[in-house]
Specification:
It contains 10 helices and 7 strands. It is an alpha/beta fold. It has one domain: Rossmann fold, CATH 3.40.50. It has a 7-stranded mixed sheet with strand order 3-2-1-4-5-7-6.
């Protein structure tokens, strides 16, 4: 049924309930797309300029103790936690700008530093996994043509919403800093990722104070709590030497890494999707992602 806030509130129970939640969110996303307009088809910055900005803006983060701490968390705890075969980056924001005078602005800074953190985690995972490549994807409605070309140059496939949400499995690393709760609703509606880097429960509870009747948010809190119960947790590293910009870039962010299970040792296909183990489905039916992408074209969610 529909409530006064426009959301359809249906308590998800089991796999069918989660599928229904995903369908509801897809319907709501069409409404958001209608009101938000379409992504930009032009770029101000070239790929070379975005590359130069990235090196300039990420230097301080790479030189900080937080960078070393993040690498240590992943490398030192790899053995006892979920193996990762796919990485999905959600809601980065654009690296491009509206005018040249905006280069280096707060939004651009955060997008670049968060991308650097995403890539850092992936690289450490690959190193620990004897160099095996992790397939990377990014999804952000505001990406411009230059954004897409830049990410492609880094070996990251850019997907249109909602395709990336359909890639989440028990072996997926999902990265979403300050991601809107309805986008997390998409990402967590079906399966829970092996590695979650995103909004911490305390911050989600803070949002819930003002949106107490939002059952989608309540479901997101429930799903993140479910991840946390089977995972080890680290607050995303911050450094004392950071200024207010860097300090806020990862504020309210947790690292939740699922503890390794017996079925993690089972055989997996070359695409990294788990086969059925003990009667529990560990992958989506083939074609589900393509179907959703066709049904909700140009979705304006991160």
């Amino acid at each position: 049924m529909a409530s006064d806030d426009g959301w359809h509130h249906i308590p998800p129970r089991g796999r069918r309930g989660r599928q229904r939640l995903a369908e509801i969110l897809a319907t709501e996303a069409v409404k958001v797309q209608t009101s938000a307009g379409t992504p930009s088809t032009t770029s101000v910055l070239s790929v070379a300029e975005i590359t130069a900005d990235h090196e300039k803006l990420c230097g301080r983060w790479r030189a900080s103790s937080a960078y070393a701490d993040l690498r240590a968390i992943i490398s030192e705890h790899f053995a006892g936690h979920a193996p990762i075969t796919t990485a999905v980056c959600l809601g980065l924001g654009s690296f491009d700008v509206k005018t040249l005078a905006d280069r280096g602005c707060r939004a651009s800074h955060d997008a670049h530093v968060q991308l650097e953190a995403f890539q850092t985690i992936v690289k450490v995972l690959e190193q620990q996994h004897t160099g095996k490549q992790i397939k990377c994807y990014a999804q952000e409605p505001s990406f411009t043509p230059s954004d897409r070309a830049y990410l492609s140059s880094l070996g990251i496939d850019v997907l249109d919403s909602p395709a990336a949400f359909g890639l989440v499995t028990a072996r997926t690393f999902v990265f979403g800093i300050h991601l809107p709760h309805y986008a997390w609703g998409y990402a967590l509606a079906e399966q829970l990722p092996g590695l979650y880097v995103g909004t911490d429960l305390r911050s989600l509870d803070g949002v819930n104070i003002g949106l107490a009747e939002d059952e989608v948010l309540s479901k997101v809190i429930e799903r993140v709590g479910e991840i946390a119960r089977g995972a080890d947790r680290w607050a995303f590293p911050v450094a004392a030497e950071w200024d207010s910009w860097l300090g806020a870039t990862f504020a309210g962010t947790d690292i939740l890494w699922r503890r390794r299970r017996k079925d993690d040792e089972e055989d997996h296909g070359e695409d990294g999707e788990a086969k059925e183990v003990g009667g529990h489905e560990e992958k989506r039916e083939k074609g589900d992602t393509a179907r959703l992408e066709n049904e909700v074209t140009g979705l304006s969610l991160g």
